[in-house]
Write a structure and sequence with these properties.
26% of the residues lie in helices and 37% in strands. Strands 1, 2, 3, 4, 5, 6 and 7 form a 7-stranded mixed sheet that branches.
Length: 133
C-alpha cells in the first residue's frame, strides 16, 4: 500500500493550499490541495512530511500532531494528515511544486475546486469545531 503525508498549515483562521499543476498524469490536476506527498519506504511519515514541505516550499517545519487518516481508493493510497508549523516564512517565490499557493478560510475553500483529501480534512476540522462548541 502506498502512504502519503499531507500538511495542514494554519495561520489564524486561514489554511495554506497549493494549486496543483495542470498535468493529466496526476490526480486532481488544477485543483487546490494540501502540500505533501508520498512517503519513501525508509522514512517515517513524520520525516516524510518534513521532507515534502522542504521540497515543495523550501521551509523547515515542526510536526505538531497527527490529525487524521484517510484512504484514497483510486490510487490505493493511505493519507496521513499532520498539523504543521512552519519554522520559516512561507513565500510564493519559494514555491517549487504547483502553480500557486494561497491562504484560505474554510468558508472560502467550500467554493473552490479542491482535491479529495482537502475536502476530507475540512469535514474533519469542522466536526471537531462543532464538538468543541
Amino acid at each position: 500500500m502506498n502512504i502519503a503525508t499531507k500538511a495542514v498549515i494554519k495561520s489564524g483562521s486561514t489554511y495554506l493550499l497549493q494549486l496543483r499543476d495542470n498535468k493529466k498524469e496526476i490526480f486532481s490536476p488544477n485543483h487546490w490541495g494540501l502540500f505533501g506527498g508520498k512517503k519513501n519506504n525508509y522514512e517515517t511519515s513524520q520525516k516524510a512530511i518534513k521532507r515534502e514541505i522542504f521540497e515543495e516550499l523550501g521551509v523547515n517545519c515542526k510536526v505538531l500532531k497527527k490529525i487524521g487518516e484517510g484512504f484514497h481508493k483510486p490510487s490505493g493510497t493511505k493519507n496521513i494528515f499532520y498539523l504543521i508549523k512552519s519554522l520559516n516564512a512561507i513565500k510564493s517565490k519559494n514555491l517549487k511544486e504547483g502553480q500557486d499557493l494561497g491562504w484560505f478560510t474554510l468558508s472560502q475553500m467550500k467554493k473552490m475546486k479542491l482535491t479529495w483529501e482537502t475536502k476530507f480534512i475540512i469535514k474533519k476540522i469542522e466536526l471537531n469545531k462543532r464538538k468543541k462548541n
